[in-house]
Design a protein that fits this description.
The protein is an alpha/beta fold. It has a domain of 205 residues: Rossmann fold, CATH 3.40.50. Helices cover 37% and strands 18% of the residues. It has 10 helices and 15 strands. 50% of the residues are buried. The C terminus is likely disordered.
Length: 332
């Protein structure tokens, strides 16, 4: 694990119009070395209005599978944050090939563009879903991965490629395994909405909260502001590591705990409905934070209640719109 001297150039964020990417663009606003950010997004799930008011952000519309587009975007870059992906376990079960192409091949294309650009610092988003059937908690990065879905397998392939580009080509790389990230800009108005926006949307619209399974499955919910703080710190110090790093803070809350916390935030009880558990879902998820803490000892996470309150406030103030979405249950 190391920190390098920052080189000049712009920052590229793939998937930068999406939930995490747009929050990162806002978090980087005004920071040294971030006066120009190039967002690469095909707008399959991202939204241009997520970047409204960010004058330092240049949007390049297109796919991470487009080699020429990536080469143009990364030329002269000092860093690339690769967040672009085809998310969702259910989506991957419906179309495994499309998930592989976006997540595995897409990551390889981004890494190749970075290599041709002279090796800017590359941060790659992987997922806690790679732990899959491994039941040991908290999940340590040195555990044997056991993917339960094509989505998880594609993310494991992506991180393996990224970590290989360091010793193979000298590209400085840092791979984060995101857990259940939630917060403002995460929408519920699509069929693969993650569990937090699906619950918040249902609660604010007076609908029953949709639960798959018994609700006792646990997740390490991580507020997006905590995630962007770590990403900003990693960019600032050009932090690298030879192995993946969990990006979560060791919390473990069941979906029923999440409902209870949301009831506290809203000040009234919430109805819920139960549907069968879904294929590919991990029963329990919790991060070991030792490696993250060794790299970013000063970062303190936003508590779940505070993060949920900020999320509710965003839903109330935004045009997020009604949704009949079922929760993905991941957000990572």
């Amino acid at each position: 694990m190391s920190r390098a001297r920052r080189r000049p150039g712009h920052v590229v964020i793939t998937g930068g119009a999406g939930f995490i990417g747009a929050n990162l663009c806002r978090a980087l606003s005004g920071q040294p070395g971030c006066d120009r950010i190039v967002v690469v997004d095909d707008f399959s799930t991202g939204r241009a209005d997520n970047l409204a008011g960010l004058d330092h952000v240049e949007i390049v519309t297109g796919s991470i599978l487009d080699t020429d587009l990536l080469e143009a975007a990364t030329g002269g870059a000092r860093a690339v944050v690769h967040l672009g992906a085809r998310a969702s376990v259910p989506r991957s079960l419906e179309d495994p090939v499309a998930t592989h192409e976006a997540n595995a091949t897409g990551t390889l294309r981004v890494l190749e563009a970075a290599r041709r650009a002279g090796g800017p610092h590359v941060i790659v988003a992987s997922s806690s879903s790679v732990y899959g059937a491994n039941r040991t908690l908290p999940a340590r990065e040195d555990m044997v991965p056991a993917p339960l879905s094509p989505y998880a397998a594609s993310k494991l392939a992506a991180e393996a490629y990224a970590l290989a580009y360091g010793p193979s080509f000298g590209v400085p790389v840092l791979v984060f395994r995101f857990f259940n990230v939630f917060g403002p800009l995460q929408r519920a108005d699509h069929a693969y909405a993650a569990v937090v926006p699906a619950f918040v949307s249902a609660a604010l619209e007076g609908r029953a909260l949709p639960l798959h399974g018994d609700g006792l499955q646990t997740r390490d919910f991580t507020f997006v502001g905590s995630v962007t703080s770590v990403l900003a710190g990693a960019l600032s110090g050009e932090v690298t590591a030879p192995a993946p790093v969990n990006l979560a803070f060791g919390g473990r809350h069941s979906l029923l705990d999440l409902v209870a916390t949301l009831e506290t935030v809203l000040g009234h009880p919430l109805a819920r409905t139960h549907a069968p558990a879904r294929a590919g879902d991990v029963r329990d998820s919790q991060a070991d934070v030792s490696r993250l803490r060794s790299l970013f000892p000063a970062i303190e996470p936003v508590p779940l209640t505070e993060g949920l309150r900020a999320t509710v406030d965003w839903f109330r103030s935004s045009a997020a719109g009604p949704s009949a979405a079922q929760p993905d249950g991941r957000g990572a």
